[in-house]
Structures are given as structure tokens and as C-alpha cells.
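EI: anyone free to look at a 377-residue chain?
SC: sure, send it
EI:
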Amino acid sequence: MDATPGNGKTTGSGNAAVRAGASPAPAASTAQAASTAQAASTAQAAGIAELGAEFERSRTSYGADAMIACDRLVRIYAADGIEVQALQGLDLLIAEGELTAVVGASGSGKSTLMNILAGLDAPTAGSVRVAGNDLAAMSVSDRVAYRRHTVGFVWQQTARNLLPYLTARQNVVMPMRFSGVPRRKRRSRAMELLEILGVGHCAERRPAQLSGGEQQRTAIATALANEPELLLADEPTGELDSATARDVFGALQSANARLGVTVLVVTHDPAVSGQVRRTIAIRDGRTASETLRRAGADEAGNATQHAVEYAVLDRAGRLQLPREMVEPLGMRDRVRLEAEPDHIGVWPDEPQPPGTGEPGTGEPGARPGRHAAGGEA
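SC: here you go
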């Protein structure tokens, strides 16, 4: 086929005519668009995969060395079409070997947390690991093995802890029988635990023949029978008088110090929470504050204990301000933050007098007035 350049005409014969300066064939444009779309799709998939990998690294690295690691833990109960959020993104780290107390008002979520840690309940969302076990991913058989070997539990009601027709020693032996511990080791282990907890003299008595404090100490021994790494106690002194409660808490301290087991206690008793190094307060389904106690000495050399309460800043950057601090300052709905070299100032959002800032915006005005109604963190 012959073509005359520049005039747009063709001469001769052939299957197709070529016009000088014409646009590329439609097939080429379609192929280029498809290639571009495929590249964009590949880049998007790679980006999503990278985000997923980053999230997984964050999830697994958070509290990697902790005995208990709760990461944005959520538990929602639904009944009659109504949802109740018992836990709302709770974060919690407990180190191995700690003796820690958890406090909170009724309905704050602490019992829900204990049931999840004990393997009796499962979270709705978030992750929870205990001694390296991912509780959210456990099968039924895994949970049975977890409750049998990894965690021990002591209930507030003594009747839930012990079988009434067995002696104290037989109650302690029973978990070891289910785990296949040899007979001789079962007996020696049971007597060792009862002696450590101060109830060795009660070994051949049934629960009805024991006092409330002796029952709870026997229950602690039973919970420790299979050498768990974590001991959970839900209001273990709630039904006891103050003197007996001290004995029971002393048993928990002995288990922690002599056996090395990590102990987490839920309590309303200030006498108990005041004797641990770390007390965690839960409010509205989240960890709200922590109180740390450190031993010291006064000028005369006498031993003292210094306690400092801290607000908890969770992984999402959320901070719960105590009501007793917020309400007197009229803080609600929103607050204004100011970064200072060594702290953060928190100020209520309220109308300012003319000339000191735009009304309703909480813009800085005269500094003395601002300090009168503000706070600093």
C-alpha cells in the first residue's frame, strides 16, 4: 500500500488505510487504562497489607513480656434488644509476679474483666493474653486446659470454692487428680500448700467445720494446686470481718511471695487495696486511674509508705478526669488544652468577657481569670 505523506489520502490497495496524524487505536488506550488500574489496585492491596502487618506488630508487641495484656478490650452483652457495654476499650498490663488490686463501683466492669481473664467469658472485640495464651482465639478444649493449668480462681462466696463433702486436703487434691498428678505428689503438695497458708491443722476437716477465714485460705490452696501462673480472687474478703480478712489477704501475700504466682484481687476493701503496691481503678468499662505505693522512711528513720494516684492515658490517648476535679470547675462537653514545656493545661470551654476572647470559644483571655477556673496536668 502506498501513502502520500501529509495529505491524509491513501493510494493503492490493502486491508486498512492509515491516515497521517490519526489518534492511536482504541485497543491501545484500553490496554493502557487496564494497566494503570491494575497498578493502582496492586498499590492499594500493598498498602492495606502493610497497614495490617503494622497493626499485627503493634498488637503482638503490646505487653509482650506481661503476664496479663488487655488491648482495647470490649465486652458487649445483649438482652431483649438492649446492648450493655461492660468493657469499652480497656487497656491493662500486669507484670509477672505482681500483687495487684482492682477497684471500682458496682457495674464498672471489673467482674466482667475477671471472668474473661479466668476463661469463663470471651471478649466481643480487642485482644487479651495471659501467660502467652490468646484467650480470644481459644477453642473449648483450650479453655478447659487453660483453667486447669494456667489460672486459679477464688470466689467471694466460700460455698462456690469447696466441695462440702470433702475434707480440706481432699479439696486441694481434687484438681491434681483431674490433671493426672501422681498420688504421692498430690498428697505432699496439698499438705505443703495448707501449711504455707496457715491451715495445715484443718487438713482433715470438712468446710462446715472451718471458719470463714479457714475456708477462704483452703480455697486459695485449692486454686494453687496445679501450680497456676496467675491467681484471680474476686472479693475474697467480702464476707469476712476485718481481722479474718487480714489473715486471708496475708495468705494471698504468702502465695505471691513464696510461690511466685501473679495475684490479681478485685476488692472493695480499702484495707486490702491499701496493702498492695499497685491499685487499678476501673470506671465505665475502662481503666481510669492507678495508685502506686512506695516504701520510704521519715526523718526519724521510721518506715513509711508514700502513695501517688495517677490518671491512666490509654493507647488511644484517652484520659478520664475525676468527677471531683471536673465538676467544681464546670467542665463538661469539651475542654481546651494548652501545651506547656513540662505539662499540659486543661481549661473549661466557657464564654469570656468582652475583649478577652471570642465568646463561646474559650480563647485565652486574661491569665488570672483563666487560672481561676482551669486545671493543669
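EI: Residues 323-376 form one domain.
SC: 👍
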